[in-house]
Amino acid sequence: MSVTGTESPWKGRFDTSLMRTMGMPLRYLVRGEGCYVWDDEGNEYLDFLAGIAVNSLGHAHPVFVEAVSKQAATLAHVSNYFSTPPQLELAERLARITGAGEGARAYFCNSGAEANEAAFKLARLNSSERRRTILALHNGFHGRTMGALSLTGKPAMREPFEPMPAGVVHIDSTMEALDAAIDDTVAALVLETIKGEAGVVDLPDGFLRRARELTARHGVLLIVDEIQTGVGRTGEWFSYMHDGILPDAVTIAKGIAGGFPIGALVTFGWASELFSRGQHGSTFGGNPLATATANAVLTEIESAGLVQNAAVRGTELRAVIESIDSPLIHEVRGQGLLIGVGLTEPVAQAVSDAALDAGLIINAPNDSSLRIAPPLVIGDDEVRVFGNRLRQAFAAVDGAR
Ligand SMILES: *Cc1c(COP(=O)(O)O)cnc(C)c1O
């Protein structure tokens, strides 16, 4: 397989025309179908990152293509002075699949960060003279806009952009820290159930249930960021369902429309009464094109049994990874089709690069972790090809050391 050289003309164009916010892209992709994508040189890759947990149905799925095409040809955008059938359908569907039920409300926007910005404003609306603090977890990730960034528990990401919006305190993900931090001065606790960007790191057993208990007792909003874990990826519609709890609010984005940009904040019960008319909004948010696509993707996830598939295939992938005989593999984390591989040495980028050369897309969220987040539609073939190519990648890195 040929490797794209530094002389590739697209690299120069990228380098001169794109903002210097990201590193140089790894490949120049031109097409996708099912769980595979192809680059400009005709190389094929099994996509087990799915645009970072976004392409729930894989690439160019007929349901996605038809939903976008049909709605674009019917009514794409109208402004928030008007409602549309797909918008109401999606709000009602989210009330059902989040478990929020009666009393649920949805706010629509265009990305994960924006969903968390709405959650941040929700937290401010639960504030008073005495109740001011917003708690979030060290090493958590909630997005790059200023409010979402202030919630993000990675100082290196925040520091160049300080001062941050005031009031956010980060705590450790331990029962002790939780017990010490939650009282009547706290407005909200914002957390991921599995820290995706931190390398797919699980919360301690019982942490979420304890958080629910304490926040309920003290009138604190429990806001769960399911932007990466939600929409079936962990083997439940939303990962808090594994713990049998309901939050006061959930933020959703990434996988909900299979690649069409959309985000949502869904509130439960009393949290649904906090916003009043005119306090928040977005021009594109909740337009019929985005919401129709989300409806179609969610309908397909439901009718094709993809939440169940995520649970079953997740177990299979875990077994495949554990069967690889490499001294570099330390542990397997995560749930369903959000999997982290903890390495014994800081060579995650080398393994991810070797995987790419072997025709497999995964990523390295940090020096010693790999992230695997394939489309929810993977079957026997994809599991087998994944095993072969990941084994090849580990063999290449083991051999080079
Ligand atoms: C990706 C992600 C975000 C940010 O979403 P964007 O759409 O990139 O703004 C926020 N929280 C979590 C947990 C994420 O994984």
Radius of gyration: 21 Å
Separate helix tally: 13
Derived from helix and strand composition plus strand pairing, the structural class reads: alpha/beta
What are the secondary-structure elements, in order, as H or E? HEEEHHHEHEHHEHEEEHEEEHHEEHEEEH
Q: Please provide the count of β strands.
A: 17
Average pLDDT for all residues? 97
Query: Beta-sheet strand percentage?
Result: 15-25%
Q: Which regions have little confidence, pLDDT < 50, spanning 5+ residues? A: none
What fraction, in percent, of the residue positions are helical? 25-40%
Instruction: Name every ligand kind in the structure.
Output: pyridoxal-5'-phosphate
Strand arrangement within the widest β-sheet reads 4-12-11-10-7-5-6
Overall geometric form: globular
